[in-house]
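Exercise 7 asks you to align residues with tokens for two separate proteins.
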Amino acid sequence: MLLGSPAADRAFHGSAASGANLAIVADRVPPAVFTFGAGRGCVPVTARGGAEAQVALVREAARARDPLLVYVTGHVTTARRRTRLYLAMEPSTRLNARVTGLPLDWVVGALTAGAGPGRYARPAGAVGPSAPPPGPLLVLDVTTDPDSWEEMARPDSALRRFVEAPGVAVWGLVWQPRSRRRFRAALVDGVTPWTRAFVERVVAGTAGGAGVLAPRSLHEAVAEEVADRVRGRASARGRLLFLGPPPASRNGVLLHNPAAVRGALPSARLDPALLAELRRAPERPQRPARAEEPGRDGEPGRDGEPGAGGPWPR
């Protein structure tokens, strides 16, 4: 399911890219890459309308027996009370986002309400029709404003409570751009760097990797591509807060690794529709190793970016 932020306020940088982000995820990620049992796929549905309408669609999808990936893009603000995160919805402004925006904890509540006891209990790495389905994966690529950023960076912030909410795995990026011009300069065909890197990695897969992809196996490559795209002095590019990746026990939805599947023998026991979809994806050349290494858990990485272990101190 795809949730966007079509806010009209010019202060909301991320809203300018939400349409292109939603389109590339819906158009380029083949449904067959999702490991939903015996080759079943997922048809992405873009939720439209106000906050209540979007939450209703999330709740309805969560009642189904299949796993659920919810992709959220646009602009997130803490509004005035700073105790909740709101996805700006049209016609949101920074002053009324808490009235017109979509509270992200509503999305988490809708995802977990339909789970039922034990629905998302799953052995780590178990894939197949006999295994319980994985829990939902919430993928975020959002921007925020300077005031909200200061609140989100705190160890006891609403963002941290949101990321650590039980029952839902959260992965993605919060970006506070330096300016609207800098934000637009980092876009490629209107798409933000994180979403483009995410889509390209999911479509191409990881050569030599396992048969399935989890956020943890993709996180470092995606984060490095984002940092390269917005490279420059930290004061010029703004600030990046990488969320996740979630631990293996909370991976959420897993994805087939197209690079591994393309090398399978024709006689392999794989769904023909899955093979056809994955073989259509272009090969992506592997990047050479860099001298700089990302930070360890809780420590800053290159250029002061958060390490792979998360953005907050332990």
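Second protein for Exercise 7:
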Amino acid sequence: MSRFMKLARNWKCWSQCFLIKWNFKIRKTRVARKALSKRMIRRLNYATPQRLYHTRRKDAANSALDGSWTSLYKRASVYPIDMKDYWKEIFEMQSKPDDRPVAQQGHVWNVVAVFRSEEIRSGLRDAGGTAPGVDKLLANEVLRWSLEAVAQLFNLMLVLETPTSRLSLTRLAIVPKVDEPATPADYRSIAVSSVLQRVMHKVLEKRVRNMLTFSSLQVAFQRKDGCLEASILLHTTLRMVHDEARPIAMAFLDISKAFDSVSHDTILRNARRYGLPPPLIRYLSRLYHDSLTRWDDATINCRRGCDKGILCLPRCL
């Protein structure tokens, strides 16, 4: 017990070893441009795809293939003034309490088994080419470290049932969903955490996926072609009703900002329902309660929503 207390006392100091290297700047307010000359449009069409290639190569390739690169310059022409207030209101809104009883049938303790260097190496290779967090660490850089030491760090986080404040700090990136965004709702928020934390959650995600049994009708967050299976199920249902001349009632529900508005209590309740062990539940509870997101000069405490920078929970639940 004394050794555990010593680890807990020193944990706060150790957790500060991960430096914040990301240069957060105050974003300049953009205003709507008036009619641009053909010469200026050519310059923008030349520069914008190059900037996109350096930040998101996949999107740059898609824009070159589908011809949308000719309108990329329009995305930067208008920037909503109330963008920050809009997203802060969504993130900082308090989660709705969810005290429904949980029908639990034992715990799957193998999910919190000791981390091995082989699991870490596999997770880092899968994370190759992904964006860095605030520490600017890349997966190929961590692969040159002692993976035994990284595994011990992850084991310590599970033993103490708490993440580090630096690794949990995410940076927020706003990506347009349409060619010409005009309102804050036309953008998508993506929170990027440290590659170390993402790899840890990927390992936990893989364990949960291999050890827990989900409904056969669940197509989201599963290793299968969800769109194909859902389309076949819908087509088969409609064909059967048509052939047998039977009545049918169907409803399509589209939840706006589903991942950004889900209650943390509901996420943790589902984790208990699937049998995740109490140490992991307490780790996840602290992760959601204490994690912060930096967006330019603002620090946001996400009180609800399934943070896209934290990969474990949406995949598991």
